[in-house]
Amino acid sequence: MLFQQYQPIVLPIDYGKGFFELSAPEVDSYFKWFLENKESRLVQLYKLFFIDVVNPLSENNLKITEWVLRSAVSYMPKIVVKSKNTHYQKVELDARTFSICYDISIFWGELMISLDENICWVQEKDKRYADYGEPMLLKKRNKSFFIPFRSSTTIAHKMYDDTYKEDEVIQMFNYLKKKFDV
Q1: Which contacts qualify for 162-165: CB closer than 8 Å, 24 or more apart?
Q2: Rounded CA gap, 98 and 76, in Å?
């Protein structure tokens, strides 16, 4: 089985709690942890999925990330959480799928950074924004930003709901390259 050797990530925070409920030092500590651990998460991903690839951090591997995400979603248990509005149902990601989304989002972020030295990981510090606390990519000078984890989980949900269109990952990445002027 594809995911037998895969070790899901263990976050130093309760991600379900939400960043707004964390103190500023906790949010800062999480971002520091993220920066210190992103390389080891890439190694985990590379070992599992890019075994014979000479340069794993390549746009040629976007299709592989799409396949991996689809494989993770296909094994995802059907956990449906009904919201207060009975017309809306949210599917929660299981721990492995959440972790795959997290690791793939790091891959996408590091791939963008490899294309332009003016792109870097930052953290939203203003609580007025929904993205508060999330690691995101920012390009200096043009102020474009991108939150890879949000995109990977959105794509996972689309795959789960069967609304994902083939090559959306590649289309998203090409859009980002234009947005970031890469």
Answers
A1: 164/70
A2: 10
- Per-residue pLDDT tens digits for 9-28: 888 887 777 778 888 898 89
Which single residue is written with the structure tokens 């590091």? Answer: 110
pLDDT the model gives residue 60: 85
CA dihedral angle for residue 47, residue 58, residue 11, residue 119, rounded to 10 degrees: 150
Between CA 112 and CA 119 the distance in angstroms is 7
Contact between residue 135 and residue 128 where contact means Cβ atoms under 8 Å apart? no
Q: What is the pLDDT of residues 74-126, one digit of tens each?
A: 766 555 555 455 444 556 788 888 899 999 999 999 999 999 999 999 998 87
Q: Are strands 135-139 and 119-123 parallel, antiparallel or unpaired?
A: antiparallel
Total H helices, total E strands in the chain: 5, 5
Residue 162 CB neighbour total at 10 angstroms = 7
Rounded (10°) CA dihedral 40, 45, 50, 52? 50
b/e 7-23 (16+ beta carbons within 10 angstroms → b): ebbeeebeeeeebeebe
* C-alpha atoms less than 13 angstroms from C-alpha of 80 in its C-beta half-sphere: 8
Say which amino acid occupies 58.
Answer: S
